[in-house]
Structures are given as structure tokens and as C-alpha cells.
Amino acid sequence: MDKNINIKLRIWRQKGPKEKGAFETYELENVYQGSSFLEMLDILNNKLICEGKEPVAFDHDCREGICGMCSLYINGHPHGPDEDVTTCQLHMRKFNDGDTITIEPWRSAGFPIIKDLMVDRSAFDKIIQAGGYVSVNTGGAPDANTIPIEKDKADAAMDAAACIGCGACVAACKNGSAMLFVAAKVSHLALLPQGRIEAAKRAKAMVAKMDELGFGNCTNTGACEIECPKNISITNIARLNREFLKAKFKD
Amino acid sequence: MSWLIKSSIGRKFIMSISGLFMILFLLFHMSMNLALVFSLEAYDKICELLGANWYAIIGTLVLAAGFAVHIIYAIMLTLQNRKARGKERYESSSKTPTQWSSKNMFILGLSILLFLILHLYQLWYNMQFKELIGDPTAVSKGSELVVGLFQNSWVVLVYLAAFVLLWFHLTHGFWSALHTIGWSNKVWLKRIKVIGNIFATLILIGFSIIPIYLHFAY
Ligand code: HEM
Ligand code: FES
């Protein structure tokens, strides 16, 4: 049963990108375990504003796990201790009375801090702009089964397309690598006939952009897959490697 | 070809190929050394074949190049990855349950390298190298040198420790190398992990038998 709990929060506060940050400790009483993690932060911010203090800046938008805007490194996990959910879908029932919860921003050279817990993830947009699309207008949604696609391919493409680009993979990776994100984007297009035509060009362009933006080299630790809120499999990384190497050997 | 150094997947490709090359060498090296367990004469015959001949020398050079490439790329990757991770670290230590060896490949590799230097000094230097430079103290009967060496329990322990480190490096390295060249999917990922563990264990057992046997048999 959900109860009300008292918790201690250790939150990274940083005024701006160049400012020095530090942890600050806050205590919250009577937090309902049925509330979401972000609602708990709303309660904290309400309290801070009432006390005339600066509220904690954090990213969020849809609050239903589909936009990829929320982030936060909570107690050693991107998106917190729950399995396969985003921070906005994490609930306070994952925590107990008296817990201390440490909240940090994503940390990676590719994601510089904007303020407090907000990081700049526009690097992902740049990678998408480098090739994560189909160049021509392919028209409206075709009728089902007009283009036959094998079930396993359709399933794999759908699973890869579930990536919401939140950046948890980079946040979890000891190498600051964006391979799981790029692999998901390359895979879901490469597996379908509309995207297949530009697959080689896309893989090369997106990997080049990823490298240029300073993301690390993947060493297959698998941390990304474990922390991914959308369960994107690292087998997509193997597919990206395949696509990229095939394209390079053809040149 | 500059993509082999400029792109992350290119660098990983080199890492993978050089690693797989060393895996092949390990297999060869283990089979040849296992001769020691069956017959010292057989081992000495093999050593003679692999003395200061042109093919053995070319083999040694290719092998050394493979190691050098693997180590240079390992240093490059590790430094770049540290930089990509950023200056600020997480305060709470990561709770992501990843495989231990996957996070410690560089330090494992470095320890293997230290062992390698010791190993080359103890054996290769006294056998092939001295023969090459025409040093009269070059050992012609490899088995005598090896058997003598492993009478010391400390040497046996150091070798066994190194094999264990190699086991850890290979339990991640084997499947990681195949994953890097793209040989992995939902079905094969599980298989190459299992094959990697079996392979690493065979290498561990195969190499460990030799010092243990020689220590107690002579
Ligand atoms: C007998 C000796 C060795 C063998 C058989 C071996 C084998 C391998 C293999 C198969 C890989 C996987 C490549 C990939 O993931 O694409 C690997 C990765 C790696 N090795 Fe080695 N290696 C050896 C020695 C060394 C040494 C001496 C060093 C360092 C000084 C080293 C450092 C690394 C590093 C940093 C990686 C990258 C981690 C990764 O990609 O998972 N290794 N090794
Ligand atoms: S706020 Fe949209 S996914 Fe969390």
C-alpha cells in the first residue's frame, strides 16, 4: 500500500553552463508514494518558491514516457531504479521512508549542463539532421500489406523505432558513447524498404556526425541497453557496425 | 583507409581484428605448448622448427605488429573515451549491473602486457632472441629451460594469475570482437557469449595444465 514518506534529496545545483555546481540537500515530508518522481520535484519547487528560493531546473514535457524530454541520474541509474521506464513514469513507491535520493544531471562531454539538472542534448538533433530521415516524400501511410515486409523485420524496425532519444544510453555509458541511439535510428530505417535505399549513406553520415560531436567509442559494456527506458537492444549496434563496415568496404 | 583511424567504428574494427588475431595465436601457442605435457622431445622439435628461421622470424614480427596495433589502439580508445565521458563525474557510483570485465578491459590488458614482458624475458629472450644474435648461451633445448623455470612455485603462481586475467579479458573480448564486426543478432548474441566463455575457459585450462604439470612431474 502506498504511504506518505519522508525523504532527503541531494540535488546538483548549478547556476549556468560555466558556473561551478555543488550538491544541496533538501528535506521533504509526507510525500505520497503514489505520486510520480517529477510530481515530487514539483512539490519541492513549490516549497522553494514559497520560501523565495530559486526552483530546481529539470527537463520534462509529456510526462507519459513518449517525448524523451525528461532525464536525471537518480541513485546511480539514468531514469532511476525502476526497470524500463522514463523518469516521468517513475513513482515514489520505489523509495522508502527515510531514504536519501541523489539526483544528478546526465554527465557526458556531449551533453553540457545548461542549468541544475538540465543538459543540452541538441547533439542528438544534429546527428538526426546528418541523415536520420528519408530524403524524398514517400507519400501518406500506405494501405496495410501493399508492401510486403517480413514479420521479424517489421518487429525489429518497430522495436528500434521505440527510441525516444532521451540520452540515457550516453548517460549510462562509461565511454560517453551514443552508439545505442545512432544504432536505433539507423536500424529502424535500414530495416524497411523506404529507408533501405539510403542505408549506407545514412550510416556513414550519422556515425561521422556522432564522432565529430565528441561521443566516445563503444566497447560493448551493455550499460546502455540495461538502462534504456525503451529496451532498445544492443543487437542494433551490431547492425549499425555491419551497415557501416559494409558501406566503407564498398567505397 | 583513413576511416580506420578517424571513425569510431573503424577504430573498433582494428581493435577487433587485432584481438581476434591474437586469439588465433593463443590457440596455436597453447597447442604447441601442450606438447610439453606429453613429451619433452616433441616440444624441443617444435622449438627447433620455430628457432631462427626466416618463417619463424616473419611469424614473430607479424605477431609483434598485431600486439603493437592492439595496444596502441587500446590506449587511443581509452583516452578518447575518458575525454568523451567529460570532466565532471557522477557522485553516486553507477548501479548499472554490467559485466565486470567489460569495464576493466584496459587494466586487464595492461596487466597482461606486464606479464608478457616478463614472459618474453624469461623464455623468448633466452631462446629465439639469443639464437638470432648468435649468443652462445642461447638455449637449444627449450624443455630444459621451461621445466627449470617452473620448479619455482612463485613463477607458477604468477603464470596462473596471468592466465586468470586473460580469462577475464577474453570473456568480454571474444564476443565483443564479433559484435564489433557485426556478427551478432538477437539469436547469435547469446551464442557468441556462451562460446566466448567456453573458449576463454579452454584457454585457461589448457595453459594452466602446463606449469602445474611441469612443477609436480619433475
Ligand atoms: C593475448 C593478449 C590479448 C588478447 C588475446 C586480446 C584480445 C582482445 C579482444 C578479442 C578484444 C575485443 C575487441 C573488440 O571489442 O572489438 C580486446 C579488446 C581490448 N583489449 Fe585486448 N587482448 C590482448 C591483450 C591486450 C593488451 C596487452 C591490452 C592493453 C594494453 C589490451 C587492451 C584492450 C582494450 C582496451 C580493449 C577494448 C575493450 C573492448 O572493446 O571491449 N588487450 N582484446
Ligand atoms: S517527460 Fe516525456 S518522456 Fe518523460
Assembly state: heterodimer
H-E string of chain A = EEHEEEEEHHHHHHHH
CATH second-level architecture of the largest domain in chain A: Orthogonal Bundle
* Average pLDDT score of chain B: 94
Shape of chain A: elongated
> Can you tell me the CATH topology of the largest domain in chain A?
Fumarate Reductase Iron-sulfur Protein, Chain B, domain 2
CATH class of chain B: Mainly Alpha
Notes on the structure:
The complex is a heterodimer of chains A (251) and B (218). Chain A is built from 9 helices and 7 strands, in the order ββαβββββαααααααα. By secondary structure, chain A is of the alpha+beta class. Chain A has 2 domains: 4-115, Ubiquitin-like (UB roll) (Roll); 121-250, Orthogonal Bundle (Fumarate Reductase Iron-sulfur Protein, Chain B, domain 2). The relative contact order of chain A is 0.13. Chain B is an all-alpha fold and 218 residues long. Chain B contains 9 helices and no strands. Chain B has helices at 3-6, 8-38, 40-49, 54-85, 100-103, 105-132, 142-149, 153-180, 186-217. In chain B, helix 2 packs across helix 3 (40-49) and helix 2 (8-38) packs across helix 4. Chain B starts with a helix and ends with a helix. In chain B, 28% of the residues are buried. At the A-B interface, helix 7, helix 8 and helix 9 of A face helix 2, helix 4 and helix 8 of B. The complex binds protoporphyrin IX containing FE and FE2/S2 (inorganic) cluster. FE2/S2 (inorganic) cluster is lined by residues 60-63, 65-70, 86, 88, 164 of chain A. Protoporphyrin IX containing FE (HEM) binds at residues 12, 15-16, 19-20, 22-23, 26, 70-71, 74, 77-78, 105-106, 109-110, 112-113, 169, 172-174, 176-177, 180 of chain B.
